[in-house]
Amino acid sequence: MRLNVKKALIFVSCLVILWVLISYASVIEVPRSAPQRDPAVEIENKIIKLQKQVDAQMAESKSLLAKVNKLKKLSGGENVGEDNSLKDAEVMQHLSQPILPVLVIACDRVTVQRCLDNLVKFRPSKETFPIIVSQDCGHNATYEVITSYTASDPTISVVRQPDLSEIVLPRVKVKFRGYYKIARHYKFALNHVFETLGHEAVIIVEDDLDISPDFFEYFLGTYPLLLKDPSLWCISAWNDNGKLEVIDMSRPDLLHRTDFFPGLGWVLRKEMWQKLAPKWPTAFFDDWLRNPVNIDGKACIRPEISRTYSFGKVGVSKGLFFDLHLRNIQLNMEYVEFTKLNLTYLLKDHYDDTLASTVYNLPEMSASEVVASSDLSSDPVRVMYSNAKTYQRAAKKLGLMDDFRSGVPRTAYRGIVTCFIRGRRVYLAPSFEWNKYDPTWG
Ligand SMILES: *[C@@H]1O[C@H](CO)[C@@H](O)[C@H](O)[C@H]1NC(C)=O
Ligand SMILES: *[C@@H]1O[C@H](CO)[C@@H](O)[C@H](O)[C@H]1NC(C)=O
Predict the structure, then answer these.
(1) Equal fold, 94-331 vs 361-430
(2) Catalytic, out of 286, 287, 352, 403
(3) pLDDT, tens digit, for every residue of 6-56?
(4) Are strands 255-258 and 299-303 parallel, antiparallel or unpaired?
């Protein structure tokens, strides 16, 4: 590539020298070639001719310069060696289809191996899905596990969070130190992906996640929604209410919108990161992302059946939460070709109208009636709630998560929580006209 740049530069130089010689020769010629004609007219003609030559030469030089600049860009600038330069084919691919790197957030768990093994196993394309591991905590054994992957595969890289200093906290917050470190690590890792490496979007996973066989296909198929719909800010692989008893196992293709950030395998775009970074919190970043104020009231896409599964019990927040909840979430095993599906129904205009008109035309049932119902494969119903208390009572009865963050019920979209119980689609919906979430709930 550098050779091409040099060749082009030499070519341009030769043309310029040639042009100077030709111009000089034609000016010298003037008095000899037209001795009998009017010298004023003759000189004017010469000047016009010369002007035309100059214009043509300028145009050619400009186009050559453009070509040189393009070649320079492709080779990654002057000071980038042969090894780092992108090949034309790769550049074309970059333009015609997105690059979605996977960012693996790692710390001191050598089980990151299990996560990396699955990413490598299900990754359909190394070029489309380069893997970037960001390691915090300075744990050498974990770092060695990671480098065993990076050593043999140039599409897997590792970066270490450089600031391992203890975060100074008031005594009452010391027990939350882990959450402060995680927020600091995410900020570093996302800046690395977007600002240092210049990626447009990223799939974020933590080191304790298993993935479904169609994990990559899911993100590739839904990514265009994120580009098309400005009311979306993330795509998540996770259903917080993804237990066997409350999902429709016959619909692995089904996706939903949610106002509640699910995390656990998600896509973020650079554009959104640049809005979040300046106000990024020092701790509890996931709950911070669940406050509509911080994400401009935007929504995420989430699946009916989760595409990730958390296998880690050891961790900052896990433990009890894992036993009670994460352990029972179903991981999808049926491969869905999301890139071939029509996902238009998830765009805000389609989705909101359809949801409201569907839900409020359904027959009503109480949560108790739904769980006691014995006729399988029945019609969808609506279960109403009027305040935080009646919401939680109904959710608990249905076997759903009953908590709120900033007033948003887990998995809710515009106040509606949907699930699938005993062969029936159920919508837990407000009995009042919903306008926004009430942050005093929960
Ligand atoms: C990790 O390795 C580095 C050098 O490779 C060493 O300086 C450091 O002491 C090691 N840390 C631990 C905790 O073993
Ligand atoms: C895709 O789905 C939308 C909304 O559900 C529908 O209006 C549209 O006709 C569909 N497009 C195709 C090509 O089927």
Answers:
(1) no
(2) 286
(3) 565 555 554 555 564 455 555 444 444 444 556 666 666 665 665 666 555
(4) antiparallel
Q: Calculate the alpha carbon distances from 199 to 101, 102, 114, 277 in Å.
A: 8, 11, 25, 15
Token pair listed for 170:
């008031």
CATH architecture type of domain 361-430 = Roll (3.10)
- CATH 3.40.630.30, applies to 94-331: no
Helix axes 2-33, 39-74, angle to 10 degrees: 180
pTM score, whole prediction? 0.78
Q: Flag the least confident range among 7-21, 182-196, 273-287, 427-441.
A: 7-21
Query: How many contiguous H segments (helices) and E segments (strands) does the chain have?
Result: 13, 15
| Three-state secondary structure string covering 347-412 | CHHHHHHHHHHHHCCCCECCHHHHHHCCCCCCCCEEEEECCHHHHHHHHHHHCCCCCEECCEECCC
Position in ligand 2 atom list of the atom nearest CA 342: 1
For the chain, the structural domain boundaries read 94-331, 361-430
**Ligand 1 centroid to residue 136 C-alpha, Å:** 14
